[in-house]
Design brief:
The protein has 115 residues and is an all-beta fold. It is 0% helix and 49% strand. It contains no helices and 9 strands. It has a 5-stranded antiparallel beta sheet, with no helix packed on it. Strands 3-8-5-6 form a 4-stranded antiparallel beta sheet, with no helix packed on it.
């Protein structure tokens, strides 16, 4: 086991579970189920990621800060803050500095939605 592995039933520092990679975005799936998933990501400065999900997308910044654009409106999300992009809405996350985020998608409750 290495230092970046997460162990169930033990308290852990989520930020140390992923490293930065120069010029890149690194993603690590923490939990994955049929009803949703939780992903830890690190963004190097200047990186941009566009997302679109048919489900609500909760973004929690755990280190640094990021600019997030939802429905053409930009917000700065600081360390310790969250922002939720509504289902079926394209959104963009931009790294103005290095930052880490926890991304949560919950699929339950959307079973009857037709795309």
């Amino acid at each position: 086991m290495n230092d970046s592995e997460l162990i169930k039933s033990l308290p852990q520092n989520i930020g140390s579970a992923i490293e930065y990679c120069h010029g890149s975005i690194v993603n690590k799936i923490i939990l994955k189920q049929n009803t949703g998933n939780v992903t830890l990501s690190s963004f190097d400065i200047g990186n941009v990621q566009v997302y679109y999900f048919p489900f609500d997308h909760l973004i929690q910044v755990i280190e640094g800060n990021a600019s997030v654009c939802i429905d053409k409106k930009w917000s700065t999300v600081e360390e310790g803050q969250i922002i939720i992009s509504p289902a079926h809405m394209k959104h963009l996350v931009k790294a103005n500095q290095r930052f880490k985020m926890l991304s949560t998608i919950i699929k339950s409750g959307y079973e009857d939605v037709r795309i």
